[in-house]
Amino acid sequence: MTHKDLMRETAAGNIETVKEILNGSIDVNERNEHGDTALMEAAFFGRLEVVRFLLDAGADLHATDRDGSNALLVASAQGYAEMVELLVAAGARLDAGDGHGLTALAEASFWGHLPVVRLLLHRGADVNAVDHGGKTPLTWAAFQGHEEIAAVLLAHGADPYLEDDDGNTPMSWAAFEGHGRVLEILGTGTPNRNYGRACYRFEGAVAELH
Hints:
mainly alpha, 0% strand, elongated
């Protein structure tokens, strides 16, 4: 059996075959050409029992692929709440970012996975963590138009007026993308005097397009 066999059987969720392969000479933390380990593969395909076994077998919880992503980031982006809970309980770093600085909370916020967002916040994830572009989880939720996630992030202290590296805020992104309900939700977070500031950003961005 080879490492390719391990990755294939992991993706398929064939835990007994995975156990047989690892009883041989295959390293549980060996990587494929993309830098992925079996743990990352199991996280991507939602193979909870395989993930549990791999962790018990010594899989590196903090291993990253060539893009800087790890098992927790993968599971969060896929929306696997139970797996996220397992990985966090095993010691995954909540606020570790990938090569772009995106955290697990940012991934879940971008892709619209509310249960994962709630779980990560309950576990203490940094609600205002910024990526390499200065964007926060709330920025990505606003950009995507995820109303419930925006409301939950706001309730946990997310700053709707925190500017990214281009000077845009979650509010201005919501306005620019036409997410009126999100804009209304974010407008309840701080005094109304800041609402005009967000609209000014929006109008300026539109003006630059003409």
